[in-house]
Amino acid sequence: MFPVSRPRRLRRSAAIRELVRETSLDPGDFVYPLFVRPGRGIKDEISAMPGNYHFSVDRLIEEVGRAMEDGILSVLLFGLPERKDEVGSEAYDDDAAVQSAVRSLKEHYPDLIVMTDVCLCEYTSHGHCGVVDEGRVLNDPTLKLLAAAALSQARAGADIVAPSDMMDGRVGAIREALDGAGHSDVVIMSYAAKYASAFYGPFREAADSAPQFGDRFSYQMDPANADEALREIGMDLDEGADIVMVKPALAYLDVIRNVKESYAVPLAAYNVSGEYSMLAAAAEKGWIDRERTMLEILTAIKRAGADIILTYHAREAARLLR
């Protein structure tokens, strides 16, 4: 009790505060999401996500080299196709932008951890994450296409494939396909608890993936549900997921904490586009300190229980932490 107990003793200098700090960030915690498209010499800024770009493979190699100099060890690739069709065929085309980028990255930076998003929404003409029939997104016919996409990415050299579609059974289908083709060492990082969130808005521009009709509430999770996340994660682990993810992060810190307390497995959280763009816009207006707020947000995500943080702030945060 006061006056014997004085918590401020442990706050009186920066050195003491660092000595007793409970949660610390490290550049190795971050995964840097990147968008790759066909062509050469392309580095086009994404207007809804200032500071992020669409890259051709040659310019992507340059960007990743600079990110590694900042201390980034892992990247996650999203692809934009040359053409779209009803079944998202470029998602499982061995010569598509993502697969080409994986091969080139592994050639230039063998120690880089290359992750690939496994989904169809960027590649389909209707913008949904699965096969569509009469306005319905079909679960089971989608699984073989997702497995084909993951297998194509593994053949290119991906270290980790990350299914983000939220179809039931997709982790098991991907694990079976990878193991059956001799890729049993490829890690699956499942978007296990992915919510139907309004925070994805800027990403829809970045990936050109907005649905052409309806919404994604029939397959992504209801933002009101927390217990359901534990069920989803348990199912994905049973099917062979090695890492599980909660997405978004900032509005779902309670879910991150629940998952960490329930499962002793590596846990990722995605600091999504809307979270990034809100901070960027407020900082541009001078309403908020960008750097302090960014590090506070990332610390909160890790404090909640995330081992891995996917964030568009990765390079900026890594530079501040070095």
Question: Can you characterise this structure?
Answer:
By secondary structure, the protein is an alpha/beta fold. The protein has a single domain, classed as Aldolase class I (TIM Barrel, Alpha-Beta Barrel), CATH 3.20.20.70. Helix content is 39%, strand content 18%. The chain contains eleven helices and twelve strands. The protein has helices at 14-19, 57-69, 97-108, 140-156, 170-180, 201-207, 227-239, 253-262, 273-284, 290-304, 314-321, and strands at residues 30-36, 43-45, 53-55, 74-79, 113-118, 131-133, 136-138, 160-163, 187-194, 243-247, 267-271, 308-311. It has an eight-stranded parallel β-barrel, surrounded by nine helices. Strand 6 (131-133) and strand 7 (136-138) form a beta hairpin. The mean pLDDT is 96.
Count of discrete alpha- or pi-helical segments spanning 4 or more residues: 11
H/E element sequence: HEEEHEHEEEHEHEHHEHEHHEH
Mean pLDDT: 96
Task: Give the biggest beta sheet.
Answer: 8 strands, parallel, barrel
Strand order of the largest sheet: 1-4-5-8-9-10-11-12
Helix content: 25-40%
Q: Assign the CATH topology.
A: TIM Barrel
Distance between the termini: 39 Å
> Helix- and strand-based class?
alpha/beta
Please describe the structure with a list of short key phrases separated by commas or semicolons.
322 residues; alpha/beta; TIM Barrel; 8-stranded parallel barrel; two-stranded antiparallel sheet; 11 helices; 12 strands; 18% strand
